Amino acid sequence: MAAGFDPSGRLPDVFTNAGTSSFTTFLSRVAPEMLPGRRPLPPGMAADLAPHATTIVAIAAAEGVVMAGDRRATMGNLIAQRDIEKVHPADAYSLVGIAGTAGIGIELMRLFQVELEHYEKIEGAMLSLDGKANRLASMIRGNLGAAMQGLAVVPLFAGFDLAAADPARAGRIFSFDVTGGPYEETGYDAIGSGSLFAKSALKKRFRAGLSVEDATRLAVEALYDAADDDTATGGPDLTRRIYPVVMTATAEGTRRLTDTETAAIAEGVVAGRMENPGG
């Protein structure tokens, strides 16, 4: 990009002309090589060459939505990182969790955050929740080439819908396939290698109208069940004091539970399983 500056030090016209409200579209014009899906890859599968993030769960609650993720990243049969953070705020009222190739997932999540902030600054208004989901779907689609070589990223998106007619149903959850197809989920969902076990746990315990506090406890229990059967999912690590990342999105905005709050919930779940290992 530096080569595009003139001797006066002025920015190129592409930076000053009226443009699109999409930051990824702007980046595709100015520096396409910075987009994850635009980088050339050597032939062959590369899935075992990079750490992978695993299980994320999301639950709709009466006041909004809860999202939680375990902290383990794996590379083949090895634990690549014990304290990776897979759940982040997308903007003031929405959350995004990543599963799949960790490095690309984190980059995609940060690009999505910039995308939403850029839109709001250009348009002077926040995207609708459906619009945010569609923007994320487009970004996932841009990574399809890498996904076909084993470097897939499949996020989970959830948020509080400010335009919802019924505030009790404002917590909404969207899942995606590897081609970028967006799907709205009802009540709860999970992604990643432990998602089968997490969703099985949620299926038995979920009910409409859960409070945020109850949904938070249920999310941590679902991650515990996933870790119990999936080696790539990390359960609460009481020795190292590493606990799931838990966030909420409500009418008051997004919030991450403090380490103290998460520790109390996780330790309560573990204590309960000591008495009843089956849950």
UniProtKB/TrEMBL annotation:
Pathway: Protein degradation; proteasomal Pup-dependent pathway. InterPro entries: Ntn_hydrolases_N, Proteasome_sua/b, Proteasome_suB-type, PSB_actinobac. It is found in: Cytoplasm. Keywords: Autocatalytic cleavage, Cytoplasm, Hydrolase, Protease, Proteasome, Threonine protease, Zymogen. Pfam families: Proteasome. The 20S proteasome core is composed of 14 alpha and 14 beta subunits that assemble into four stacked heptameric rings, resulting in a barrel-shaped structure. The two inner rings, each composed of seven catalytic beta subunits, are sandwiched by two outer rings, each composed of seven alpha subunits. The catalytic chamber with the active sites is on the inside of the barrel. Has a gated structure, the ends of the cylinder being occluded by the N-termini of the alpha-subunits. Is capped by the proteasome-associated ATPase, ARC. HAMAP family: Proteasome_B_B. This is Proteasome subunit beta. It comes from Micromonospora noduli.
